[in-house]
Amino acid sequence: MAFDQAYSHGLLILTIALWLVFGVLRRHRFVPRPSIMGVVLVALASLMLAFASAVHVEIIQQVALVGMVWALILALVGWRAAFYTFFPVGFMAFAVPIWDFLVYPLQRLTAAVSGSVLSVIDIRFALNETLIRLEDIGTIEVARGCSGLRYLVVALTLAALFSYLSLRRARSWALMLVAAIVLALLTNWVRVAALVLIAYETVMTSPMLQQHELFGWLLFVVALVPLFWLGNRLARRDSAHTDASGPERQSAATPVPSIRLGVIGGLCAVSLALPPLMVARSQAAAVDDLGLPAPERVGDWQRINGGGQSPWQPLMRNPDASQMRAYRSREQSGSLFVGSWYYQRHHPGKELVQYANHIVHPDRWERLEQRALRIGAFRGRLLELARVGDADARVVVAYGYHVDGRWVVSPILVKGLQGLAVMLGDPGAGLVAVSKSCATSCESARATVTEFVRSARPLSRWLPSQ
Predict the structure, then answer these.
(1) pTM given for the model
(2) CATH 3.40.1000 fits 297-462, yes or no
């Protein structure tokens, strides 16, 4: 479960979901009708969970876990039980941070709405994405916590739960959920616009600008009043239209032979256990004493000691081994640098691709140009960077990720190949980069770096044998 501000209700959601599931099982008293399709889905969810664990992508782990619970019900109890427990199990999705992709669009939308309010009342301002600059006053940022995601998730959670317990028609469900979305967004827009006006009137001195959480939740509670008023009206209307056909009839189902139930249960157990065991075996393997290789000569380029420091370094957290080697050629001025960073075992905070790792250090370098670089089997990128604060200090960088014996450049593809490699027992992966400094014009440096990559193939010579 997630414990950031938008998902602080996670454990409560889990408790409610379990209560709903047990309520369904108690009311219907399903006769077990094991499904082989459920076993297939359990195996797929287990693979998905193990894969996500191997590459440390928590959101996929959480989604796979929710799907696995429903797949187990399908496998052991059957389709009828899976149908009635679909919502109770799916309700746990409101505790999983699958909604975070909405944060930035909601920030932009909230800033735009606040700007519209300022325009109506003729306050002079400038809007730059999520920044609102009040003329002669100061700048206000519509930060992540002001996106309104918290109100949106909580409103949808409450509306979905109310709909499941009280509404009977799909149209009523849709109206309830749309109303929840609209009221949650309006609540946040009113809150942020009010804070911007307070900042304008008090010249950024009001303490509410720093302590506005309570103000937002009070507005949200007020917004829940019309939401549940609408819900009660819809519930009464649905009740009037409900076909009074009496309680659901339970068919006299023939009990399933215990041997079939045992076989399905055993298959589920194997499906649950095998993928995590594959990952655990790979991660538990002994870590080698790593020494990164570096060729003495590449074409006309000779490796040298004391060749100076490379002005460019990627930001790579906690590699198992790393190096930066200098090479010089009699036909070229200045040094060329080859660096490699290798991760033999992957753990949280110790991954080739992770949030804290950057090819281009955001505080030191600015991207001027970027293009794909494909030479033979090598797949990478060629960058031209300028140092922040000194546009004449530039560097050309060619880089690529080496995972499972192949070169890739997409971080998403790196994660995918790493997951497969970990499950197959070969988790090692690395980054290799070639860099050369240049002045205002970097055409010569680009040609030099490209030719070095062509001559040095395979660049995996700067990584341990995989």
Answers:
(1) 0.68
(2) yes
